[in-house]
DNA sequence: AAGCTTGTTCGATATTGTAGAACACACTGG
DNA sequence: CCAGTGTGTTCTACAATATCGAACAAGCTT
């Protein structure tokens, strides 16, 4: 390898963390199932699970181990400690109600976009994005909105880390094309996701900038057909822009 | 000790878990602060934090380490995977709206009561209980409702583990008195918390029983003065009982 | 620029996480 | 009813590795 980016990592801890992740992905699992899913001995998996269980991070019930309710505590805590959360939640709900579409507030961490708030309007599209769901930045409107306002080296770091995975035939997988798109969005003020993550689903995203730094983005997603109309092309962006602006003003006071 | 209940525990993992807990309690912390809060060397704390950060469980920003957004993902996942959550949320909201008080749905895990849903009415008391907050069972109305329907050895196990910590002068700290209270509540059908956790705050709790097992409880809390009126003494319990009943019916179908 | 903080890296030692075999237990099908 | 397979759990010996202290770099205030 050219760059050695393992500046000291505790392998046993990573084992535990991978167990936690696996219990999430597998929606609970038994000892042996985990052991050969993660290539470790049964006894090791058991020791880790026992330690996690003793500390309330994991529960053993229904013939399998599951993540414990302590995660609910930590999750709510982290969500609420994000300064954007309190400010954004009501705004997102209002936009969803007015437009009838599905509206998100997303923030970046570790190079991924995580949903902080989600609100559904009365004709919202179905989606697999819930609060806490993290997704790639290059194929979402919020992701692009955030990327476009991050320092360039950071953007490259993120793309190096996560790549530009293809989801649909519209997904932008070429780095230069993405940069063009970001530039265009920056000039325009808002960003698109034209069926780049799910076919049939289009989205519009607007960044939230505070004191020169992007703090996150608000986005709205709906069926491609509906969002392509002339009326929506002008109305929805301006609605999102004023929502983001309201949030920005609010943030500038709580500073 | 009479019983040796440490049947194999990984010390390094417990260190990591204690770091996670400390980052929550301290609302983020630096390396040295954590190190001497948890009696470990700076370098050890750093190694753990680096591992947690590399895996997205922790973020380093603002001159201190904080819990990362991955916890939001896990938290929402665990919350939603509780079968009670989906069923109870709308019911809890409805009761809160009708009564104007604060309403909870709580479930037991590891001997503590955790709030799954919280809804506020228009004249709700202030509280420090949010979704995910875990509290002792012996001094909450939901806790009593659940304890009263758990097998007796389990109850003793829980009380052994967590004790009967005193919060106010009304807190029941005597085990026999608690058993009497549980018996009375079981006959009555609903349970009280008479300023046993916070002075001035009274609560009424009702168990949710499915197929013979307690699954959780719904409770309503408000100022002691307001809940002591004759009207409330009859109206609120029956309202909660029918709410719990509706939930039970719902549960029996999704079985 | 000296003195205090931080956070970070490094290397040697002993603590401890690890694997594998053996265990108890539940279930299933002949 | 009892082999047979699947669990989860316990145990022990060994090698792997988490740990510590000291040394380091960087950011402060003085």
Automatic annotation (TrEMBL), chains A, B:
Pfam families in UniProt: HTH_IclR, IclR_C
GO biological process: one example: negative regulation of DNA-templated transcription
InterPro entries the UniProt entry points to: ArsR-like_HTH (IPR011991), GAF-like_dom_sf (IPR029016), HTH_MetabolicPath_Reg (IPR050707), Tscrpt_reg_IclR_C (IPR014757), Tscrpt_reg_IclR_N (IPR005471), WH-like_DNA-bd_sf (IPR036388), WH_DNA-bd_sf (IPR036390)
HTH iclR-type domain span: 10-69
Keyword DNA-binding: yes
Molecular function in Gene Ontology: DNA binding; DNA-binding transcription factor activity
Keyword annotations from UniProtKB, A to Z: DNA-binding, Transcription, Transcription regulation
IclR-ED domain sequence ranges: 70-253
Keyword DNA-binding recorded: yes
Name this polypeptide is given: IclR family transcriptional regulator
Organism: Halocatena pleomorpha
